[in-house]
TrEMBL record:
GO function term, MF aspect, one: ATP hydrolysis activity
One Pfam family, short name: ABC_tran
InterPro entries with a match to the protein in the record: AAA+_ATPase, ABC_carbohydrate_import_ATPase, ABC_transporter-like_ATP-bd, P-loop_NTPase
Stated name of the protein: Monosaccharide ABC transporter ATP-binding protein, CUT2 family
UniProt entry tagged with the keyword Nucleotide-binding: yes
All residue ranges annotated as the ABC transporter domain in the record: 5-247
SUPFAM superfamilies for this protein: P-loop containing nucleoside triphosphate hydrolases
SMART domains reported in the protein's UniProt record: AAA
Keywords: ATP-binding, Nucleotide-binding
Domain of life: Bacteria
């Protein structure tokens, strides 16, 4: 099976604290993979390494079959390689218009280097109507992000990643503090990502949401991948049981990944 991203033997420490130990994971093309674990398990550190925010102490990263130079890997490089991260409530600048949020750092420019503002606004408007489903007559690409609901903001951030055809979209707790309707919309966005042959890494404490959209579950405990399985191998109730078991188990570097 083709993989979008593969991490091999990632280690990361912060001072005397060993945050990650021998992280090995692969994200197949066209699938949603979920990272499951308690607070402090290491999930955030993993996604920050994959997205270029943190540099591991050792280990290697492969994107679309090519090894990444970890010494120069950054958020900008991650985006250029097709890795986009959507953080809860932090993916968008609330005081900036929608069109600038969509194209920040990746503006369309003419031969003289000027931003093609009208084209960017038209594309943003199409995104609002077609991807997010905003149908009001007064919808404008010039509206501020603060005018959108939580679900609409997450939808815009995910749609932005899809517009730039990100090979991998990392979603960090995208359904937290949203209404039931907004949660449904965000989960629909996540389900639609594999339709383009792209992949998603989904981090959520809500195991019901995880089971709805993920093809594979990776359980993180004490800084390592402690267990993995496919959705058809585990019910929602078993997800809860597995998480509780790993949370209570003593730390064991020799634990094998299923």
């Amino acid at each position: 099976m083709d993989t979008i991203l593969t991490a091999k033997s990632l280690y990361k420490s912060f001072g005397s604290i060993q945050a990650l130990t021998d992280i090995n994971l692969s994200i197949p093309k066209g699938q949603v993979v979920a990272l499951i674990g308690d607070n402090g398990a290491g999930k955030s550190t993993i996604i920050k390494i994959l997205s270029g925010v943190h540099r591991p102490d050792s280990g290697s990263l492969w994107i679309n079959g090519n090894e990444v130079n970890m010494r120069s890997y950054s958020v900008r490089m991650a985006r250029s390689l097709g890795v986009e991260t959507v953080y809860q409530e932090r993916s968008l600048g609330e005081k900036q218009p929608l069109w600038r949020n969509v194209f920040v750092g990746r503006h369309l420019r003419n031969a003289l280097g000027f931003i093609r503002v009208k084209e960017e606004k038209d594309l943003t408007l199409a995104m609002l109507r077609n991807s997010i489903g905003l149908k009001g007559v007064g919808i404008s690409a010039d509206a501020l992000v603060s005018t959108l609901s939580g679900g609409e903001r997450q939808g815009l951030a995910i749609s932005r990643a899809m517009h730039f055809n990100s090979a991998l979209t990392i979603l960090d707790e995208p359904t937290t503090a949203l209404s039931v309707k907004e949660v449904g919309r965000v989960l629909d966005f996540i389900r639609s990502i594999p339709d383009r042959g792209n992949s998603a890494l989904f981090i959520s404490h809500n195991l019901h949401h995880v089971h709805e959209v993920a093809d594979m579950f990776l359980f993180v405990a004490r800084g390592t991948i402690a267990y993995q399985c496919r959705r058809e191998e585990m019910s929602v109730a078993e997800l809860f049981e597995q998480l509780e078991t790993l949370s209570m188990a003593p730390y064991d570097h020799e634990r094998t990944v299923a």
